[in-house]
Amino acid sequence: MFDVQRPTRLEPGCLSYGGFRSVRDPAEFYIHTRWRDMAAFERHADLRHTVRFVETVEPLLDILSRYRREQLW
């Protein structure tokens, strides 16, 4: 999560990127991002660092997170 923070923040359409660890469960993390528009977010989703990150964390995502992500894409 923190490895993709810098390249993501440097993307032209990224307004903010925050990675957070849960205070209740140290094994739980959250990422909150804001984008100028949907086109910027879609470009982000296709970049190599993003694709590599998603492939790496996919097995770690819980069912609810996967459902929410699929609804957003």
Plain-language structure description:
With 73 residues, the protein is α+β, with helices and mostly antiparallel strands. Helices cover 47% and strands 21% of the residues. It has four helices and two strands. It has helices at residues 5-9, 38-46, 48-57, 63-72, and strands spanning 14-21, 29-35. A two-stranded antiparallel ribbon has the order 1-2. A hairpin with a 7-residue loop joins strand 1 (14-21) and strand 2. It is globular. The two termini are 19 Å apart.
Specify the biggest β-sheet: 2 strands, antiparallel
Radius of gyration: 12 Å
Structural class estimated from helices and strands: alpha+beta
Helix content: 40-55%
Question: How many helices?
Answer: 4
Q: Tell me the number of strands.
A: 2
Question: What's the mean pLDDT score?
Answer: 84
Quick rundown:
The protein has 73 residues and is α+β, with helices and mostly antiparallel strands. It is 47% helix and 21% strand.
Helix/strand layout:
Layout: H1 5-9, E1 14-21, E2 29-35, H2 38-46, H3 48-57, H4 63-72
Antiparallel strand pairs: 1-2
